[in-house]
């Protein structure tokens, strides 16, 4: 009998995991199903580019996974029952139109990623735009296209996504009045060189920066700050971090207060040994026992780690330790400029940074490389290993403690 592996979510980490599983395990032994809401791969790291009107290359999963043996299922996951080991996928036409489908699994890889986080600030849900996924970015794209010269845009959030969004908007639409509201200082975690360059670019693009400014409410035409000031905003773009989808929290899985699945160093759920969580959906510890930040930069390593652990456990091999660490923070500052901030293994800025056109080129290569490796899962094929029946039995055994 085949061992059924269901992978939920085909973003950077889920798609990587499905492809790597297909490479690692023998086709006759496992049935791998990849479930995703959309029919093609979304380059989430380019949503700020999409929002300003750039077109992204279509990447249909059907082509990406052709010949891999991975079965694709398009649909929205609405529930996971980790005690019965089933996943519910909504009927394609929506409730009442068809039957929901229930998929049974032996091993689950949970990679549903995250969406935007409105932090509960009043007015965000009604008035703010977001770029955490394609639907939100498309809505912003249409809104920005409809703005007349001189109208105001405020990007709230001075982190990586906010910086990429505000510079992309200002570069594409120099006719707009573009501002950034950041709770801290502009790029205050960067090296001196990185922070200096960022300030130079922001000045060149004519972006007004409101530093040490917390936005406490969003209205249709302005935002209000903690000190009671008002900043005009025909469009508010909200980029204050990501929040995971509520599905895991509705299960008996052990999750954090924010709904991330708690895993050991092999990305295996601490409460349910047949569930692995990767990417934004997991709370995994990185170097220095610090939680990994939600990013592709670390997420792809977590997918590799989970797959290598699953493959080892099913084939009776030794579970490898995939190093999960950071190397750099790659920030696009429009299409012609960028900043590559080199960091320690645990993500703290070191002195060296690349800036300017070279950094923009570097960032582009990173984005292209990430999408390429997802789209070519079978390149660099490794020897497929046979599943060992005794190992499958052991896999189903009670929870193992975190290594
Ligand atoms: C504008 C922007 C720029 C970014 N830039 C960078 C960067 O430069 N570097 C970096 O490291 N990180 C960056 N990030 C963060 C990075 O995109 C995420 O951390 C990464 O995508 C997480 O990967 P994931 O596979 O966990 O989740 P995702 O990529 O979000 O994938 C989740 C998948 O699950 C699917 N899904 C979700 N819910 C359901 C459901 N209920 N049913 C079925 N399918 C579902 C989604 O459609 C999606 O395909 C950026 C993010 C944004 C928004």
Automatic annotation (TrEMBL):
GO MF terms held by the record: NAD(P)H dehydrogenase (quinone) activity
Cofactor needs: FAD
FAD/NAD(P)-binding domain sequence ranges: 4-288
Transmembrane segments: none
Gene3D superfamilies: 3.50.50.100
Keywords associated with the record: FAD, Flavoprotein, Oxidoreductase
Name of the protein in question: NADH dehydrogenase FAD-containing subunit
Origin species: Streptomyces paradoxus
């Amino acid at each position: 009998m085949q061992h059924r592996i269901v992978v939920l979510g085909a973003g950077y980490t889920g798609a990587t995991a499905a492809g790597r599983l297909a490479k690692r395990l023998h086709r006759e032994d496992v049935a791998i199903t990849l479930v995703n809401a959309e029919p093609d791969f979304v380059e989430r790291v380019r949503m700020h580019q999409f929002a300003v009107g750039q077109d992204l290359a279509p990447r249909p999963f059907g082509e990406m996974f052709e010949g891999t043996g991975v079965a694709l299922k398009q649909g929205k996951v609405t529930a996971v029952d980790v005690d019965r080991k089933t996943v519910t996928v909504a009927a394609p036409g929506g409730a009442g139109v068809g039957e929901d489908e229930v998929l049974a699994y032996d091993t689950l890889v949970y990679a549903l990623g995250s969406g935007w986080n409105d932090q509960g600030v009043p007015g965000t849900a009604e008035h703010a735009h977001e770029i955490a996924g394609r639907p939100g970015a498309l809505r912003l794209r249409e809104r920005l296209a409809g703005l007349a010269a001189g109208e105001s845009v405020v990007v709230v959030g001075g982190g990586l996504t906010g910086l990429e969004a505000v510079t992309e908007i200002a570069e594409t639409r120099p006719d707009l009045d573009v501002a950034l509201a950041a709770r801290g200082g502009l790029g205050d975690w960067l090296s001196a060189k990185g922070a200096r360059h960022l300030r130079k670019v922001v000045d060149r693009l004519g972006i007004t920066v409101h530093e040490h400014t917390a936005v406490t409410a969003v209205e249709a035409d302005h935002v209000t700050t903690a000190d009671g000031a008002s900043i005009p905003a025909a469009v508010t773009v909200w980029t204050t971090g990501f929040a995971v989808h509520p599905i895991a929290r509705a299960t008996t899985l052990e999750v954090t207060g924010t709904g991330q699945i708690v895993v050991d160093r092999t990305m295996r759920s601490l409460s349910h040994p047949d569930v692995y969580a990767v990417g934004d959906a997991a709370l995994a510890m990185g170097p220095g026992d610090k939680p990994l930040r939600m990013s592709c930069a670390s997420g792809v390593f977590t997918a590799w780690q989970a797959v290598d652990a699953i493959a080892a456990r099913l084939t009776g091999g030794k579970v490898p330790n995939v190093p999960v660490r950071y190397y750099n923070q790659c920030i696009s500052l429009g299409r012609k400029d960028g900043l590559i901030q080199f960091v320690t293994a645990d993500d703290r800025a070191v002195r060296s940074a690349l800036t300017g056109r070279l950094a923009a080129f570097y960032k582009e290569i990173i984005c292209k490389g990430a999408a390429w490796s997802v789209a070519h899962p079978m390149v660099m094929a490794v020897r497929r290993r046979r599943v060992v029946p005794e190992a499958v039995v052991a896999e189903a055994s009670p929870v193992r403690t975190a290594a």
